[in-house]
Design brief:
- With 210 residues, this protein is mainly beta.
- It has one domain.
- Helix content is 3%, strand content 43%.
- The protein contains one helix and 17 strands.
- Strands 1, 6, 8, 14, 16 and 17 form a six-stranded mixed beta sheet that branches. Strands 10-7-15-9-13 form a five-stranded antiparallel beta sheet, with no helix packed on it.
- Strand 2 and strand 3 form a beta hairpin.
Length: 210
């Protein structure tokens, strides 16, 4: 199993995870937020290059308790069967849909769509992908001609009254040599729709970020 780890900066550098037969590309961006005025020792995860807290991104779910993750993009140099896209270190979250969509933007961009499904006629991942053209992720075989595909994972709060969290999405693929796992790191705190994010909630995410 390989982990594509977030790197410092506004946009993370592109990280490539290569197998003997194919290549999947993906990346994650650091979480947003700042410190806290409280004396409580929240900082349990740090960026070793900067010695600063690793903070998850905090979002409020839509009225149905749902959001859609875009943890990275994939491309294949040989026929590559996509087997699964599962949440890592998830609490109080379940998957509603796993999809891929042709994506013409830079592989450095990741993000979260705050409505699922997205608003009618809305562009996806920086308007470089079209939601109606998506395909189910599980069971799809990608080839060189498919180009870059954005990974989209819609999630829902299991208990709509409580926050949920995850540290990424584990993508399982097979290029012919057996299943291979890649974790696309995307650390997110998902609050109920009536519970906006605040500085203290973001600071507290260092108790479980990686």
């Amino acid at each position: 199993m390989r982990v594509l780890q977030a790197t410092p900066g506004r946009w993370a550098a592109t990280l490539a995870a290569a197998t003997a037969l194919g290549v999947l590309h993906g990346c994650s961006t650091p979480g947003s937020g700042s410190g806290t005025d409280t004396d409580e020792p929240f900082v349990t995860a740090t960026d070793p290059t900067r010695r600063t807290p690793v903070l998850a991104r905090c979002v409020a779910a839509d009225p149905e308790g749902e959001v859609m993750l875009h943890p990275g993009s994939v491309s294949a140099t040989v026929p590559t069967l996509l087997l699964a896209a599962d949440l890592t270190d998830a609490e109080n979250l379940s998957v509603v849909e796993r999809a891929i969509v042709r994506y013409d933007g830079t592989s450095q961009v990741t993000g979260i769509a705050l409505n699922y499904p997205p608003l009618k006629d809305a562009g996806m991942v920086g308007s470089m992908g079209a939601w109606p053209t998506r395909r189910p992720l599980v069971g799809t075989t990608l080839g060189r001609g498919d180009g870059q595909q954005a990974v989209l994972v819609a999630i829902r709060l299991t208990d709509p009254e409580e926050p949920g969290r995850l540290t990424g999405v584990m993508l399982t693929q097979d290029t012919g040599a057996g299943p291979d796992d890649i974790i696309l790191r995307q650390q997110v705190l998902v609050n109920p729709p009536d519970q906006p994010c605040d500085v203290q909630a973001v600071a507290a995410t260092t108790a479980w970020t990686r």
